[in-house]
Amino acid sequence: MEDSCNERLDYGKMGYGCKHYRRRCRIRAPCCNEVFDCRHCHNEATSLLHNIFDRHELVRNDVKQVICSVCDTEQSVAHVCTNCGVNMGEYFCQVCKFFDDDLDKGQFHCHDCGICRVGGHENFFHCARCGSCYSVSLRNNHSCVENSMRHHCPICYEYLFDSPKDTTVLKCGHTMHTECYHEMIKHDKSCCPICSRSIIDMSRAWRRMDEEIEETIMPEDPRFKKVWILCNDCNDTTEVFFHIIGQKCRHCESYNTRMIAPPVLPQ
């Protein structure tokens, strides 16, 4: 009897769904009363509407009705179909109204984030200041930036907090999609697009610039010209000799600097 019940619950598992999730139900979006396979399908469809004022995103917690993909019965959100008795998702979250048959993702609900995440609860911790879940490898090993995940990716401008894509935390504490990070590095961009701090080890590049400066003699007039610089890496402000190749920070020896106006001394 128990085997028969389990067989019924598992009927159709991994056989239904969309490109985002394998699940045995569709959702009725309360915002437009249309039926979609998941909220991502809804958001993709509405983002293409001709009238920009009709474009909108679905609030996952607002979903009240689902349609069983096995028997087409519309019903209130629940784990098991009230008509045919199948699990509409092997993983089910009542808070997020979220269903998924693919348990290999390691889904878990973070009460502090207020949403479901993937990757296994044991592999993540919630950073209260950053306002999001991070890999346990970053516990006490990252620069905290308040609500760093609650903004848009500085490269593709997709909202990061509930994005299904992997996210990378930079040395400075700012965040972006991992694929955007790799694309940025591929195009030789080595600074955070938000704060301009170096995001990779640039020591070899700085040594090459030392050698270039040593071999490049400036004309006599600007050779002894001094300028004030602000270092993007350590935030130190110093006065240094100008060079066409770059200005080196005296504090951390970085060339990731920019010229600024001289400081105003107190009278």
Automatic annotation (TrEMBL):
It comes from the Eukaryota. Pathway: Protein modification; protein ubiquitination. The keyword Nucleus applies. Residues 153-196 form the RING-type domain. Residues 88-152 form the CTCHY-type domain. It holds the Pfam family zf-RING_2. GO terms for biological process: protein ubiquitination; ubiquitin-dependent protein catabolic process. This is E3 ubiquitin-protein ligase miel1. It comes from Nicotiana attenuata (Coyote tobacco). The gene is MIEL1_7.
